[in-house]
């Protein structure tokens, strides 16, 4: 019973270390993922175009309006859009 618990604990620790290693490789990457790239491309449109796009895609137009206002006030930091 104790040997079995030690194996489970060791496997759990190895799993956490593997996850931390994989996450560490992604955390310093400056690339945009698909959803973020789509949002950046969408908020560069006008308000009426955003309404048309969100009506076709069933996404949140309120979030895109907030992102668009933030983009126009502060710009984009750390991306190449």
Secondary-structure map:
Elements: H1 2-27, H2 34-43, H3 47-57, H4 61-74
Helix pairs in contact: 2-4
Notes on the structure:
With 81 residues, the protein is mainly alpha-helical. The model has no long low-confidence stretch (mean pLDDT 76). It has two domains: 1-30; 31-81, no CATH class. It contains four helices and no strands. It has helices at residues 2-27, 34-43, 47-57, 61-74.
List the defining traits of the structure above.
single chain, 81 residues
Shape: elongated
Determine the N-to-C terminus distance: 57 Å
The sequence of SSEs as H and E is HHHH
The SS-based structural class is mainly alpha
Tally of individual domains: 2
Residue share in β-strands: under 5%
Gyration radius from CA atoms, angstroms: 21 Å
Biggest sheet features: none
The total of beta strands comes to 0
> Multimeric state of these chains?
single chain
Number of helices: 4
List the uncertain runs: none
Mean pLDDT over the residues: 76
Q: Helicity, in percent?
A: over 70%
Summary?
The chain has 81 residues and is mostly helical. It has helices spanning 2-27, 34-43, 47-57, 61-74.
